[in-house]
Amino acid sequence: MSDTTEQPDMDRRKFLGTTAVVAGVTLAPGVVLHSIAAAEGESGPVTDEVRWGMLIDTSKCADGCSACVDACDKENGISVHAMPEGASPETWNAQRPQWIRAVKLRDRQTGKTTRLPLMCQHCEFPPCVDVCPTGASFKRADGVVLVDRHTCIGCRYCMMACPYKARSFIHENAYNQLAAVPRGKGCVESCTFCVQRLDRGEGTTACTEACKQAGHGAIVFGDLKDPESEISKQLKSYPSRQIRADLELNTGVRYSNV
To answer: What are the contacts of 200-204 at 24+ separation with CB within 8 A?
Structure first.
């Protein structure tokens, strides 16, 4: 047992160290993923001239559809994170990584039930950042909330602070990792708005594409500061709301028809 407990940390450091060499930079919060993209010559500096956001039309979210979840798992290497041998399905279901999960909300007054995908809401004032003792949880200038795995100590304060229960803790070894999305045992993680794509200049997320390909088109992603972006136009044209707007976090994810 002692060998399997110590090995993941060594593997994680070796993997991340190799990534740093490829990027050719000094590791610091928020630098690694951006530096990889910059090395490929596909991205400019992250600035506050952009704020990435997402609008989800719950009326188009089809019951039983898992396109967004499946696409997220594949894009970020979560799908290869299988249940450990000997683990119980109940324990695995409670602990397995989930960056997007489908939830159902019920209006107590009307009885109406709404199905919606819930992920990190990329708050302007993220509680996870406020409580992190090492600065591992941070918000980029473009509004994307991330976790620096080099400084995350696995205390899970951020998980307790998140009102959306959007973060997962990696309890087991993470094998077959993707170079652009390093993951490791003992770290907290959550939706990154597919930051690896953004830093390559793609301007979209895997879940957005998958939802469109499935024929639903429930997810719109884009720059909230650009008045000509599709998301800005829809936010101006149709009513939308934040989940737990009473917390005044100014979330980057909004929902319509809730």
So the answer is: 200/37, 200/40, 200/42, 200/43, 201/37, 201/42, 201/43
